[in-house]
Design a protein that fits this description.
Structural class: alpha+beta
CATH superfamily of the largest domain: ACT domain
Number of strands: 8
CATH topology of the largest domain: Alpha-Beta Plaits
Strand content: 35-45%
Family: Belongs to the acetolactate synthase small subunit family.
CATH architecture of the largest domain: 2-Layer Sandwich
Strand order of the largest sheet: 2-3-1-4
CATH class of the largest domain: Alpha Beta
Function: Catalyzes the conversion of 2 pyruvate molecules into acetolactate in the first common step of the biosynthetic pathway of the branched-amino acids such as leucine, isoleucine, and valine.
GO molecular function, one term: acetolactate synthase regulator activity
InterPro entries: Acetalactate_synth_ssu, Acetolactate_synth/TF_NikR_C, Acetolactate_synth_ssu_C, ACT-like_dom_sf, ACT_dom, AHAS_ACT, AHAS_small-like_ACT
Protein name: Acetolactate synthase small subunit
Largest sheet: 4 strands, antiparallel
């Protein structure tokens, strides 16, 4: 089962390395990792997606709290979270298919952020399924490069 774990940490050098090392030592693969400062520049939020059962999640949570720079750890169930992912996708493009690619981009409310003679670069943000669907639609044109920024998430409403 996939878990989205939000870890609030002090914004200091080496914290990311210690958190990633903890996952590696426990044999857990990090599927996605996004880190950024919060409204307080001395604090960062790590959004980590990893696979495991409830016991694994409990073990990781306890281990994270043992790290001196950890302030708060919580699991974000999909039903209680707002989740987004960012991706940049460079596809092969020419005079004949450029307008078709642009139409697909428009349908997904994505953006064309760069156009070259033989390619177009698309920016999309949204839920993982939306990014996957756009990628599926443009694969037939030939994906030259792609990078996904990892999931970011916050709890809904007043939670």
């Amino acid at each position: 089962m996939k878990h989205t774990i939000s870890v609030i940490v002090e914004n200091k050098p080496g914290v990311l390395s210690r958190v990633a090392g903890l996952f590696a030592r426990r044999g857990f693969n990090i599927e996605s990792l996004a880190v950024g400062t919060t409204e307080d520049p001395t604090v960062s939020r790590m959004t980590i997606v990893a696979e495991g059962d409830e016991r694994d999640l409990e073990q990781i949570t306890k281990q994270l709290y043992k790290l001196i720079d950890t302030l708060k750890v919580f699991d974000l169930p999909q039903s209680q979270a707002i989740e987004r992912e960012l991706a940049l996708i460079k596809v092969s493009a020419n005079e004949k298919n450029r307008s078709e690619i642009s139409q697909i981009v428009k349908i997904f409310r994505a953006k064309v952020i760069d156009v070259a003679e033989d390619s177009m670069t698309i920016e999309i943000s949204g839920e993982e399924g939306k990014v996957d669907s756009l990628l599926k639609m443009v694969k037939r044109f030939g994906v030259k490069e792609m990078v996904r920024g990892g999931k970011i998430a916050v709890q809904r409403g007043g939670a």
